[in-house]
Structure formats: C-alpha cells, structure tokens
Amino acid sequence: MLEPSSVGIIAAKTAHFSQPLRLKSGEILPQFDLVYETYGTLNANKSNAVLICHALSGSHHVAGKYSTDDKYSGWWDNLVGPNKPLDTNKFFVIGVNNLGGCHGSSGPTSINPETVKAFGSKFPVLTVEDWVNSQTLLADYLGITQLAAIVGGSLGGMQALQWTIAYPERVRHALVIASAPNLTAQNIAFNEVARQAIITDPEFHDGDYYEYGVVPRRGLRIARMLGHITYLSDDAMGAKFGRKLKDSIKYTFDVEFEMESYLRYQGDKFAGEFDANTYLRMTRALDYFDPALRYDADLSKALANVKAKFLVVSFTSDWRFSPARSREIVKALLDNELSVSYAEVTAAHGHDAFLMPDAHYHNILRNYLSSIEVGAIK
Amino acid sequence: MIQNNVKNANSMTNFRHDFAIIAGWVPFGAKVLDLGCGDGALLHYLSGSLEVRGYGVEKDDKNWLTCMSQGINVIQMDLEAGLSGFEAQSFDVVILSQTLQAVHNTEGIVREMLRIGREVIVTFPNFGYWRHRSQLIFGHMPVSKNLPYQWYDTPNVHLCTINDFDEFCVNCSITVKQRLVLTDNKPVTFMPNLMGSLAMYRLRAPK
After folding, report:
1. Tell me, what CATH number does B117's domain have?
2. What is the count of residue pairs from A and B with beta carbons less than 8 Å apart?
3. How many domains does chain B divide into?
4. Is residue B100 part of a domain?
C-alpha cells in the first residue's frame, strides 16, 4: 500500500555517457552509466532541481516503491514526497547511484566491454571529486545548469560540500547533514577494519570473486556489523537491546543476546544485497576526502570560491560524524562570510539519526527547503 | 542614522527603542554577531534598516527554528561552551542584548566578544532600578518588564546593577566607549543606577 504522501511507483532510469571521465587517480573511465530516479516535475526554467547524494550503502532509490507489493520504500522516503519536508510538489528531486556502486551505475560488478567479464578488481578507486564530476554530467544530461539545492548526509554531505567548492555557480543551496570536512584517524581506522574483514575473506580472490562464482560474504557481513555499531550511540543500543537475552544463557557462542541477533541480522541482510568491491571503494572515498589538503589544511581557504548558502545539521549523539566536525565546516563558511545556519539536533540515535523522521529535525529541513525560491513550477 | 531608524521602527507594532539605539551604533552593512539572539528580532531589525550581514547564536531549538525560518543565519550553540569557533576580530560588531544576566561565565564571554568583535555592545536589565529595589524592600524578588521571570523560573543567574558593571569593566581593564541608560524607552541621565531600567554599553578591548 502507498501512503498519500508517497512519490508513488517509481522506475529507475539509466543515463549512458560515452565521453571518457578522467578520475582523480589518473585513471580514465572510457564510458559509464549512471542509474537515477526522479520525483516531481522539472519546471520550465529548470530552477527547481534538488540532487540527493547518498552515503556509504545508499542508492539512487531515495523514495517511492517499484511496485504496489514492494515491501520497502526508498532509503529517504520519510523526507521526499508530496508535502513532505523535501516537497515534490515544489521540487524536482534526483537520486543517483554513485559510480562504483552496485545498484546499476557502472561499478565493479559491471561487465567490462573489453574482457566481457565483470570489472572486479580492475574497476578504479574513486573519490568524492570523481562522483561530483560525474553528477554534473548527469545534471547536464537532464538539462539542469544550476541545482536549487543538494542534500546529503554523511558521505552524501561531503559530496554536497564538494559541489559547492568545485562548481560554485551550479548550486544555490547545500544541506550538509551529519557530515565532516574529512575523516578523523579513528574513522579511517574503522574503515580499515571493515576493509580488512573483506580483503582477508578467503572468498575475496583479490576482488575477482565473480569469476569464482562466490562472494566474500563473511567479510562483508563483519564490515557491516562493525559499521552498525558505530552508526548507533551507546545509549540507543542500550535502550533498544540492553543486555536482553533471546532466551537464557547457554554457555555457547551462538546468538544469546538480542544485540548479537540484531547485528547478525543486519550483517546477513547487507551481505546478501551489497557488493564487497563497492564497499571497499565507498570507504576509500570517505578516507580520501579532504578538500583542505591542498590549502595547508585550511578549510576556510578551500571554501574561498564557494557561493552557495548552507544549512549544516549535526546530531548530539553522533560520535562517528560528531557535531564538532560540522562546526569546522560552519567556521570555514563564517570565515568566508557565507550564508549559513547550523543546527545541533538533540537525538539519541547516533549517526543514524539523519535518516530518522524526528519532528524537530524534519521541521528544520522543511522550513529551510520551503524558503528556497524556485520560480514558477510549470 | 538614528533618526531614520526611529522612523522605520515606529512603523513596527512592537517598537523597541533599545534596538533603535543599537542600530545607531552599528555601521551600515556591518558584519554583526548577535549572541543569544533569541527569536532573531534584533537581527531582523538590523538587516532591514542597515542591511547588516548578520549571524545569530542561539541554543534554544524553538528560537533557532524561528530565526532560520525568517532567513536569519543562525548558529546553534551554547555560549558557555566557548566561542573559539569565531576568529579574532572577524566581526565589525558583536552584540549581547539582554543576555548578560543569563550567562554563567560572564567575564569569559565578554572577553571573547572583545576578541571577536571590533566593537562590542552589551545591554542588560539594571537590577538597581528603583522599582526593583522597592520590590525587594517589600520582601519580594523583582519582577518587571525587563525582568519578567519569577525567582523559581528564571534563566537569569548573574543579575547586576549599573555600578556593578562599571566596576567589572574597571577591574577587567575594559574601556567603556559609551553608556546609555533607558527607562520606558527614554534616556535617563539623572542617577542612572537608581532611575534606569535598561543599561546599554559600547565596549572596547583592554589596550
């Protein structure tokens, strides 16, 4: 069943790009596909487009369902739809699967036309800059010169920030949520553990596991379990699971605590639908993002050409992308006298809070987005 | 400048003479930081009359949302947690409008304001105002237009008199560039610590 504020039944589309894309690593993608979805209607002067950038495990499927009996809606369905905070009566919303992804855009699981086999390990390592460059090509393809806004949480927020740095004329508003100007050493460390879990899985085969008809399921599962721990707060875990047992203590290493059951369930679910090579690339893109690097670690200098207006949001219990990291972005924007509002939302859910429909948080997004002028809709 | 602002302000339903005076102290187009900006009324006023590039700091969710929804740039943070996120001398004017009495780390915050702003404006309700004193004489904590809270339900923690604040500035080697005292929107020059209900200061950093 579809609720009235759902964008409804959606079909993904594919844009093919036959021009080569030069990547930050120096490698060149001779051609590539980007799979995307759109919600709402692009207005006549094409001034109402909003791009949603996804985080580590997201996709282009932001809102709606693929069929009436589809069990799940898109990953940010609570935000996007008619009369929702990101109102599709007003905006033309674009969701895109990033390059290197495993939901239809060119990535390690795609067939390399030269070898007629999956790219696997041969698919290049990507950066946030590469993603943003490819997203501008998608905007061109859709005939959009300037986006009304870019919305992104976590790794998606990094893409929104990068857009404003690299393409200052092409974005009017950036909503950077639960994000950071770069990863801390601790964050890189978590990513490294996740990658090691995948790479040391005997079924990884140096990234060419497709040829062996296997997937490094155990590694991917552990990587996701670790991720889940860091996306939640200790308090949220305590409130949800505490020390609850499924049954009683049995003196085994099977699932005895509810917490274990949840982690294993999440790990199994993810390992069944996500690609390990994509996971490696997504975490690497996170590690590498550091726009201030070229400017003696001075983020304010890195943002010197930015023109967009910003809404920056963090969550009090988010220790993976803590409020302090968002405040670094805010400071750099202030140093450049840019328009910025910053909210520190009191929330118990840790990093995952950015996907939750908290009333105050959604009011913030709703009010900010409703103030964006887009001109006539039709 | 003040004349113009007073004219503009008169058309507003809720005329705030203290806002008009602050507007007279803020240069046109200045970069302004309003600490504890509440619902953004002062910044809204200054943006309209002086086209300032304004930023507010506010910790309360509801006030923050009101500011942001009006298009005011507002940073959600607790003043007490420190203002190190603001560069030295990065604002033309830093304002603490009727918030001084509600901060714990008074000296630290005033010093930070003097670090961040080339000009600092502080306003506060004068606890020494005769109406406040008379309420105390009759055995009650003062409640007034500028001190609208009951003793058990007040955000105010550091109430002071004009004499107290003057002494504070001397002790901290802060130069008072200008001081204005108001009662019922009118300037008070005779015995200001007794007759004045609202104190307004322009401060300069210690040399």
Report:
1. 3.40.50.150
2. 49
3. 1
4. yes
Q: How far apart are CA B56 and CA B46, in angstroms?
A: 12
Closest Cα in chain A, distance from residue B84 (Å): 10
Tokens of A242: 């505490």
Predicted ipTM?
Answer: 0.93
Nearest to A342 among B53, B65, B75 (CB): B75
The range of the structural domain enclosing residue B176 comes to 2-126+158-204
Q: How far is B33 from chain A (nearest CA, A)?
A: 11
pLDDT tens for chain A, 378 residues: list them.
568 899 999 999 999 999 999 999 999 999 999 999 999 999 999 999 999 999 999 999 999 999 999 999 999 999 999 999 999 999 999 999 999 999 999 999 999 988 999 999 999 999 999 999 999 999 999 999 999 999 999 999 999 999 999 999 999 999 999 999 999 999 999 999 999 999 999 999 999 999 999 999 999 999 999 999 999 999 999 999 999 999 999 999 999 999 999 999 999 999 999 999 999 999 999 999 999 999 999 999 999 999 999 999 999 999 999 999 999 999 999 999 999 999 999 999 999 999 999 999 999 999 999 999 997 655
Beta-carbon-side half-sphere exposure of residue A12 (alpha carbons within 13 Å): 19
A362 at interface of B, judged by CB pairs closer than 8 A: no
In a domain, B93, yes or no: yes
H-only helix segments in chain A: 128-141, 155-166, 185-199, 217-231, 234-240, 258-273, 276-288, 299-302, 323-335, 359-370
Which of these is catalytic: A275, A318, A352, A358? A318
Catalytic residue among A103, A201, A351, A358: A351
pTM assigned to the model: 0.94
How many angstroms separate the CA atoms of A220 and A84, rounded? 34
On whether any CB of chain B is under 8 Å from the CB of A346, the answer is yes
